[in-house]
Design goal:
heterodimer; A: 136 residues; six-stranded mixed β-sheet; 3 helices; 6 strands; B: 194 residues; alpha+beta; Heat Shock Protein 90; five-stranded antiparallel β-sheet; 7 helices; 24% strand
């Protein structure tokens, strides 16, 4: 599988999906013209990654920590739906293998209580443990 | 489309007349393509950065504007005689009352028989108080699929949550088939920071 890197634009987030480092990152604004078209390759990558982790965890036997950093400035309501689905997928990965720990770091501006609330709601809806990180 | 644009202009005038003491700070009428939306949002983001100092209020205002503009682009009536590259016709207007209350008004054409459905959806949202609205939002986001038009059905609920006010609407009949449906979202800075 390949590392997936998408540069940010004025209406799409910057994304790094790196299976070598077990590192996933989403930064910026999300209001794509075609939300389905934008998110489909990300879900395809996660499906492949889920299989990759399954074999990797089996082979190594040790715990694999997957670090997911979200530092979203803004996302529209249709992106919110896809972000929730993305966390559901990460939840499946977390639950599906006892040797895999998915760590979600939800970064928000300390003045932006809506972004903090969004992280708390996603945590509640998905059952994943979120680390809420305020920045100044 | 000249007749439709003239009707939009007349509606904007009526809406402005109903807003004594409010100053219009942004008005756009015409076609809503994704590129139009992008360029207006860039301009509006700069305006908000200059004029609204509180981050929470600024982001909520931006949030409402994105949902409004996308709502017209995705869901408004497309006239069959228009070029495929031209978006649906409508308008967005922002007015300010005494520097602390913003009104965002959007208008777009709908088929007359769709008006009842629009009203019912808005009444459902307006009949919910904040905790119920948040539950309603969570219920939709957890159970809905993205529509062919790219919407999740969350826009109106999101606007009601972010504005902390009821969504007001009006139907201006254009002809026997179509009407201009307007939606008015109020955001009061003092209330938001209370």
């Amino acid at each position: 599988m390949d590392v997936l890197i998408l540069e940010s634009t004025e209406n799409t987030p910057g994304i790094i999906l790196d299976h070598n480092k077990n590192f996933l990152e989403f930064i910026g604004e999300s209001r794509p013209e075609d939300v389905k078209k934008f998110f489909t390759p990300i879900f395809d990558w996660l499906d492949t990654y889920k299989n990759h982790l399954y074999f990797l965890a089996d082979k190594s036997g040790s715990t694999i920590n997957v670090d997911c950093n979200f530092k979203m400035e803004y996302f529209n309501s249709s992106s919110a739906k896809y972000i929730l689905d993305l966390f559901m997928k990460l939840g499946e990965i977390n639950k599906g293998n006892s040797n895999v720990n998915v760590n979600v770091n939800w970064h928000y501006n300390e003045m932006d209580e809506d972004m903090k609330d969004a992280g708390e709601e996603f945590e509640k809806l998905t059952g994943l443990k979120f680390n809420l990180v305020a920045f100044a | 489309m000249q007749k439709e644009l003239k009707f939009i202009s007349e509606t904007i005038t009526k809406e402005l007349l109903a807003r004594t003491g409010e100053t219009p700070i942004f008005i756009y009428k015409g076609s809503f393509t994704f590129n139009t939306i992008n360029s207006h949002l860039k301009e509006l983001k700069n305006e908000l950065n200059m004029h609204v100092s509180n981050l929470k209020v600024r982001k909520r205002m931006y949030n409402i504007l994105v949902e409004c503009l996308e709502n017209i682009n995705k869901h408004a009536l497309r006239f069959p005689n228009l070029d495929a590259n031209v978006g649906p016709y409508g308008f967005v207007m922002i007015t300010v009352f005494e520097e602390h209350t913003y009104q965002v008004v959007l208008g777009n054409f709908i088929l007359n028989h769709e008006a009842l459905n629009h009203k019912e959806r808005l009444e459902t949202v307006n009949n919910l108080e904040m905790p119920e609205l948040k539950d309603y939002y969570n219920n939709i986001i957890s159970n809905t699929e993205i529509s062919e038009r790219g919407g999740a059905g969350l826009g109106l609920v999101d606007m009601a949550i972010k504005s902390e006010n009821k969504l007001r609407y009006q139907v201006y009949e254009y002809d026997s088939e179509k009407s201009l449906f307007t939606l008015n979202i109020t955001l009061n800075e003092t209330k938001q920071l209370a």
